[in-house]
Design brief:
Number of helices of chain B: 21
Largest sheet of chain A: none
Shape of chain A: elongated
Radius of gyration of chain A: 24 Å
Oligomer: heterodimer
Structural class of chain B: mainly alpha
Order of helices and strands of chain B: EHHEEHHHHHHHHHHHHHHHHHHH
Number of strands of chain A: 0
Distance between the termini of chain A: 81 Å
Distance between the termini of chain B: 25 Å
């Protein structure tokens, strides 16, 4: 039974990664790309948690009390490092998602669309100059 | 082995000072104050990283810093060997000189504080990647570098081209770096450690039982199986993790199939940001590739076959990259896009040097990396001055503008010759060393590629110089000549002097890059030894390790 569940979990994680890559690469909508990126990073985080999990009976959290028996603790404890990695990765992911949301908002305001194909087509209509910087410059 | 507080605090200090600037901007409105703060922080980082380089060279020992005082495989450790100390000093030097230009560039720009903050945060991330001795900390610092670069590319948020290029760059960058995190998790699940020195030791079971190293292997190995059995079981996941990480590093450094974001992103950023992105950020991927291919999965590990395959693929990609990008560069009409394509050419050369697998190849890659970092930053900032004067980036729009600024044109010519690789400059000697390393192994196709790509690149640069100097001005508007700003003039002169010195002192530099490459390829045990000495010092007496 446990084997069945772990196999189902692994297969669904693989399918998740495939779906998210499909979403990032082939969906032109920026918001859909953003959703696919969150799916990808969450899937990788779940993989890290699964790797740190110990199938002991019962598994115990990685907090050692002074009167615990060390030998029992070591054989049953869940690995704490993947949890620390996932916490860090979640914080980084938050920063990246906020950046992408801001970028999507700016793209919508400037282009009037969040479709990246349209955006990349219309992007070259603007002249590649840096003139805007110097227009307000005093003419000395 | 020495413990240095400067090493541990440098990236964090720069990051903290960088984010102090926007807070200060609430209270102080005068630009001069921020200019001085910005230059001071950049100068401080140059002083501190040079201090680290001098103590590494002077004592002939590695510098280390364990965060929180934990012995190495348990805690994060920062390591400065010759390679990372040299690269960090180059990075700080280039950022200081570009900072002097940035102060002038932002004189009429609102929100200059954000540009300063992003550049300093980028510097903190770059130094963190270079000094980190832990593959997860490397991931965190790569994300710091990546998010600062996305911010720099999208700096003009009211314009179309920067926004669209930043969207493409950031979405793919986030996807690739998430895959690097997956590779880190796979490596951790296979070997139970994240420390680079510990990984290097565990992947070489033939030296694991030497007396010096028992202390670090005792922390995280041989719980149920011996390390040889573990390696046999996890050969496939570790190979996949190696492939994923190298693929991600080729995205960061814009090697051929992953290069498509670079010309847009690097040309649409503000000019000082282009100089830093093109000169330094792509080099971080090269550094991480060298760490993975030589220090961790080195030539005497069990992964020698997959490593050979990977090196051959990188050689092929480097050849395609340099040929393709040199042709694309010669076809461009946009001066900044042209320089961005030239970056892809040079990244191709550097990867070709790495993938020879020999000491000389790696030495030439490191030498070329330093040459290209300084030369590309110099040509970007001097072209930036002409772009400002002619108010356009197009080569035909810039026609004849060089006659108004003979000194800047002279510097552009010198840096072009440096990047093409002609004798008095450093670029010639690094390309010569690269060529020699191919001839030494009898690889004729890469050697020919270096010559052909250099010739096509030379055509591109001569087109640039011809456009800004010889074509008579076609515009009817007479452009009044303005004085060259003092600070950027000083920074350009310093960088020109440094590219000349890279050429004049070529014998000394070739000796030292050979020493660096020799240490990376053959004496990888130095790294492990430094880590294990630190672990011995930090482990309290009487702790019963198995």
């Amino acid at each position: 039974m446990i084997m069945l569940f772990s196999n189902i979990l692994l297969i669904s994680l693989g399918v998740n990664i495939a779906i998210s890559i499909y979403g990032i690469v082939s969906k032109p909508n920026m918001v859909k790309k953003l959703i696919a990126i969150t799916i990808l990073s969450d899937t990788v985080n779940v993989i890290a948690i699964v790797i740190g999990y110990r199938l002991a009976n019962p598994p115990i959290p990685p907090i050692h009390a002074l009167n615990d028996d060390y030998r029992v603790f070591i054989t049953r404890v869940v690995d704490p490092i993947p949890q620390a990695l996932v916490l860090t990765a979640i914080v980084i992911g938050l920063a990246l998602i906020i950046f992408l949301v801001f970028l999507t908002l700016r793209i919508f305001r400037v282009f009037g669309s969040v479709n990246l194909h349209e955006v990349l087509e219309t992007m070259y209509k603007e002249l590649p100059t840096e003139v805007h910087l110097y227009e307000e410059e005093p003419s000395d | 082995m020495y413990i240095s507080i400067i090493l541990g605090s440098l990236p964090i200090l720069i990051m903290a000072l960088a984010f102090l600037l926007p807070v200060l901007s609430i209270f102080i409105k005068r630009k001069v104050v921020f200019d001085i703060c910005f230059l001071f922080i950049a100068f401080l980082s140059l002083i501190l990283s040079a201090e680290i380089l001098f103590s590494v060279v002077g004592t002939q020992e590695y510098l280390l810093y364990p965060f929180g005082g934990w012995p190495p495989p348990l805690g994060i450790v920062y390591v400065a060997d010759y390679f990372s100390a040299t690269l960090a000093t180059t990075i700080s030097f280039v950022i200081l000189t570009v900072a002097m230009y940035t102060v002038w560039y932002t004189r009429h720009l609102e929100g200059y504080v954000w540009l300063y903050t992003l550049i300093l945060a980028l510097e903190a991330g770059l130094l963190g990647v270079i000094y980190s001795g832990d593959i997860f900390n490397l991931y965190v610092m790569l994300e710091v570098v990546a998010i600062s670069s996305y911010g720099l590319v999208a700096f003009y948020t009211f314009r179309r081209r920067p926004l669209a290029s930043a969207a493409r760059y950031s979405i793919l960058g986030i996807m690739f770096l998430t895959f690097y995190f997956l590779a880190v998790v796979i490596i951790y699940s296979s070997l139970g450690t994240l420390n680079i020195g510990d990984l290097a030791l565990k992947l070489r079971p033939q030296i694991i039982h030497l007396q010096n190293y028992t202390i670090i292997s005792a922390y995280s190995s041989e719980y149920t199986n011996t390390i040889a059995e573990i390696l046999e079981e996890t050969a496939l996941p570790l190979s996949i993790a190696l492939l994923i990480s190298i693929w991600v590093f080729t995205f960061i450094s814009a090697l051929f199939p992953n290069h498509f974001w670079l010309p847009d992103a690097h040309s649409e950023a503000p000019t000082p940001a282009s100089a830093i992105l093109s000169g330094l950020v792509v080099k971080v991927g090269v550094y991480a590739s060298i760490r993975f291919l030589y220090t961790i999965f080195g030539p005497n590990t069990a992964f020698v076959h997959i490593r050979e395959l990977l090196l051959n693929v990188l050689m092929l990609l480097g050849i395609i990259s340099s040929l393709f990008a040199s042709i694309m560069m010669a076809l461009q009409d946009d001066s900044k896009r042209m320089l961005a394509y030239s970056t892809i050419v040079n990244i191709g050369f550097i990867y070709m040097g790495i993938s020879m697998g020999s000491v000389m190849g790696l030495a030439s890659a490191i030498y070329h990396l330093i040459n290209h970092a300084i030369g590309k930053a110099l040509i970007f900032i001097s072209i930036g001055l002409l772009i400002r004067a002619s108010r356009t980036r197009n080569l035909y729009g810039m026609a004849g503008i060089g006659r108004q600024y003979p000194l800047v044109t002279f510097i552009i010519i010198m840096s072009s010759l440096h990047l093409i690789g002609l004798p008095p400059f450093g670029g010639f000697f690094s390309k010569l060393l690269l060529y020699q390393s191919f001839i030494e192994k009898g690889a004729l196709v890469p050697a020919l590629t270096v010559v052909i790509a250099s010739a096509i690149v030379a055509y591109g640069y001569f087109k640039l110089i011809e456009a800004i100097w010889h074509t008579p001005p076609i515009s009817t508007i007479t452009i009044s000549r303005r004085p060259i700003p003092i600070l950027s003039g000083i920074s350009m002169v310093i960088m020109t002097a440094s590219i000349l010195m890279l050429g004049f002192f070529a014998p000394i530099i070739i000796d030292s890059v050979n020493a660096i490459a020799h240490e990376i390829v053959n004496e990888y045990t130095n790294y492990i030894e430094a880590i294990s000495k630190l672990a011995t010092i930090l482990t309290p007496k009487g702790v019963g390790l198995p």
